[in-house]
Amino acid sequence: MLRFLTAGESHGRCMVAILEGMPAGLKLDLKEMNMELKRRQLGYGRGDRMKIEGDNVEILSGVRNGLTLGSPIGLYVKNNDFRIDELIALTNPRPGHADLVGCLKYGHQDIRNVLERASARETVCRVAVGSVCKLFLKEFDISVSSDVVMIGGETDKERMKKKIDAARKHLDTVGGSFTVTAKGLPPGIGSYAAADRRLNALLAGAVMSIPAIKAVEVGLGVAYAHALGSRVHDAIYYTKDKGYFRRTNHAGGIEGGMTNGEPVVLRCTMKPIATIGKPLESVDIVTKKAVKAAVERYDTCAVEAAAVVAESAVAIVLAQAFLEKFGGDSITETRRNYKGYTRSL
Ligand SMILES: Cc1cc2nc3c(=O)[nH]c(=O)nc-3n(C[C@H](O)[C@H](O)[C@H](O)COP(=O)(O)O)c2cc1C
Ligand SMILES: C=C(O[C@@H]1CC(C(=O)O)=C[C@@H](OP(=O)(O)O)[C@H]1O)C(=O)O
């Protein structure tokens, strides 16, 4: 079983992750891993925090001479903006963030005790872990990519930028949507046999766990609601060369909770950033008086960054489901099992 845990506060010393269950013998290319971290920092509309951080992952354990050992992989990313103990208390929760409910739930009187961990800074760990999973999947010619498709209702790249500029100018924020595509998967990853093995549910859960992601559609997604079955199901064809194939991919590569051999395509929606320069009404959690919500430094738009995080979330789930099917304590063993299966198809 491939599993991971992360720890770290946004302005704490560092962010860490442990990935357990990765087979031995996988070559970890640190340069490629750090490129993923860099991609997460970019994107039009990001705030000033990204100018402070220069995210760089260090491998603490589980690797010798660049190869995984089969033991837990410890990953570390330093926070340049480390100042958690100096930050002043905040008592004016931001609508749309974890602030109010987090204080009620954990008994805090300072929303900083909540926001430090609720912050999307945690997603740097997700990308560090995802970068290892992407390298694993690459061994089997499986790739995961993403595309921003809409920002604040605009689909043209220049208009998207203008939308972000306008939001920034008006001290507001803006959300959007993006697709994540995984190519090269064989049919049969995931299963219809049990609810917790259905791949579409696992993928949606992983992407929805990224802060501010509010919807995940598989293939045609919500558009299925308007359609007739005869128009939307992907007819099946066969040739000796190709084997089974489809001419359309409305299903987004998943049928019955399993990959069907076509690209897996998800469409994901992100809400606008909760911190707003012109803050909404709120209530002070100590005095109970009406106040304006807290304004921290913020990203005007982080859809591009979220898309990179979602690639990692998807890569992690795919690596988990792939290993569930093919097993293997070493890459050699996984490859042998994989080849045996694909030959049998
Ligand atoms: C890459 C990324 C960057 C984000 N940057 C900010 C930010 O600067 N300010 C903010 O208030 N929220 C930001 N968010 C969103 C919050 O983390 C999110 O709204 C909050 O955790 C509550 O979201 P939820 O209701 O989906 O859990 C960011 C999210 C992501 C994925
Ligand atoms: C630190 C990151 O994103 C942060 C996510 C975030 C939030 O509230 O989610 C708030 C901002 O942090 P700060 O208040 O320090 O400016 C973002 O910069 C990151 O993506 O690495």
UniProtKB/TrEMBL annotation:
One of its GO terms (biological process) is chorismate biosynthetic process. NADP(+) binds at R40, R46. GO terms for molecular function: chorismate synthase activity; FMN binding. Reduced FMN (FMNH(2)). PROSITE patterns: CHORISMATE_SYNTHASE_1 (PS00787), CHORISMATE_SYNTHASE_2 (PS00788). It comes from the Bacteria. Homotetramer. This is Chorismate synthase. The gene is aroC.
